[in-house]
Every structure is written in C-alpha cells, then in structure tokens.
Amino acid sequence: MELDEVIITRAIFDEYSKTFLDYIDIDVALVGGGPANLVAAKYLADKGAKVAIYEKKASLGGGMWAGGMMFPRIVVQEEARCILDDFGIRYKEYQPGYYVANSVESVGKLIAGATSAGAEVFNLVNFEDVVIRESDQITGIVINWGPVAEQRLHVDPLMISTKLVIDGTGHDAAVCNTILRKIPNAKIGKLGVLGEKPMWSEVGERLTVDATQEIYPGLIVAGMAANAATRAPRMGPIFGGMLLSGKKAANLALDRLKCL
C-alpha cells in the first residue's frame, strides 16, 4: 500500500479538531496530568462525566515516572492497594502494609485506565487563566499551547467552559496561585500563602487526602496541589495518598455535579 501524506495529515487534523470542538464545553477540567488527576479522571469517566485532562508537557504522569531518585519503583500503602487493583497495576508486598510497584508500569496503566474509561487528554496544552463570573464560581479555564507559554510568545488563548476544575498541578498549584494572584482576597490557603512544608511522609500522606477539597467555588484541589494549598508536608516517593486523593476528588466532583 502506498501511503499518502495528505491523507495522513488530514486524518490527524480532522480527528483532533472534531475532538477539540466537542470538548469546548465539559463537566470537569482536570488541570495537570499527574497521578492524582489520572485516577480522578478514570473514576469520573466511569460514572459518565465528560472530562478532559490538560497537560502542558508531552507526557502525562508527573513525577511518578522516575520513582524514588530515578529508581523506577514506588511504594503504596495498604489503604490505596485497591486503586492499584482497579487499574491492573502489579505490585509486591515488601512487608505488611507496604507494596512496591514499577513506576513506569504504574504510569502507563494509569493513563490507559483514564483514557479507556473515556477521559480525553489534551497534552502540550498549558493552563493560563480561569473564568470567574459575578457569582465567584469558576465557569471555565483559559488554555494555550504549551510551547507558546515556554517561548513567551504573544498568542491569544482560548476558553473552555466547565462546571468544575480539579487542580492537579503538583507543587505549583497553578490554578490556586492564579486565583490568588488575580483575586488577592480569595480565601485559598493559609494567609494567602501556598507551598508544602518539609517532607514528612506519614503526615503528608494523611493530609494529602484530608486536604483534597473544594477550596474555592468550582475548584477542587488534589494530590500535591492539595498539600501546597493547605501548607501540608510533602511525601516523597510514596504514592498511596496521591492515588486516594484522586479518588476522593472524583467523588467530590460527582457529588457537586448532581447539584449543578
């Protein structure tokens, strides 16, 4: 078979543009493609929510790819083992209550689980701003291509209409920080200061889940963004709290969607 470059180009552009247009108005916009948001996306899509993940990099998975200090292994505690099972991630019990999984396999299966459930992924797309109307409720996000932001190009962005946003941008807590920068009196974080405290795995893991909440009307924080928004400690290469945070964020979003 002789390949036609025009058909190939047309197929890519045609299918992507149709998908992009279909996802201009969605239920939940997940900003950041790290493990918490991948988990949240699967559980949301499983329940029929129309969800999209916006990731500024080409690849999803956040810091999970590299495991601990570039050893491609992660540790997950007992409470989150059921999520590994839901995604079909293999693991070994290291000692009672501690399970070790391959970080590369884990990311691959988190991505596959989210997309197979129906979540749409827009990679190389950067979050730029939020849309907030008189009700103080977030009604949309503003996006642009990732390379536009990296190169500081003067290219106007586009808007996505969404009922809810989940900030899963990790240490940066990009959505929260954008609101604080533009609405100085917004009640996010303690004393309007974001960022994690020093590493303390035990406390950080617990508080990651506790801190997963609707922190501003229409905005849920998950994963390390939840820690940053509430000044909780960072955790290191243990990912159970991150996974549980994603599941909790999905449940919170599903409950809110019922009321909208």
Whole-number total of structural domains = 1
- CATH fold label: FAD/NAD(P)-binding domain
User: Ends: how far apart?
Assistant: 52 Å
Shape: globular
Any idea what the radius of gyration is? Answer: 18 Å
Query: What oligomeric state best describes the polypeptide chains here?
Result: single chain
Biggest pleated sheet: 8 strands, mixed
What is the CATH superfamily label? FAD/NAD(P)-binding domain
Proportion of helical residues: 40-55%
CATH class: Alpha Beta
Percent of residues in beta strands: 15-25%
- Secondary-structure-based class equals alpha/beta
Number of helices: 9
The chain-level mean pLDDT equals: 93
Order of helices and strands: HEHEEHEEHEEEHEHHEEHH
What is this entry, summarized?
With 260 residues, this protein is of the alpha/beta class. It has 9 helices and 11 strands. The strands form 2 sheets. Strands 1, 2, 6, 7, 8, 9, 10 and 11 form an 8-stranded mixed beta sheet that branches. A 3-stranded antiparallel beta sheet has the order 3-5-4.
Which tags fit this structure?
FAD/NAD(P)-binding domain, 8-stranded mixed beta sheet, 3-stranded antiparallel beta sheet, globular
Helix/strand layout:
Blueprint: H1 5-22, E1 25-31, H2 35-46, E2 51-55, E3 73-77, H3 81-87, E4 92-95, E5 98-102, H4 103-117, E6 120-123, E7 125-132, E8 138-145, H5 146-150, E9 158-167, H6 174-182, H7 201-211, E10 213-216, E11 219-221, H8 224-230, H9 240-259
Parallel strand pairs: 1-2, 1-9, 2-6, 9-11
Antiparallel strand pairs: 3-5, 4-5, 7-8, 8-9, 10-11
Helix pairs in contact: 2-4, 2-9, 7-8, 7-9
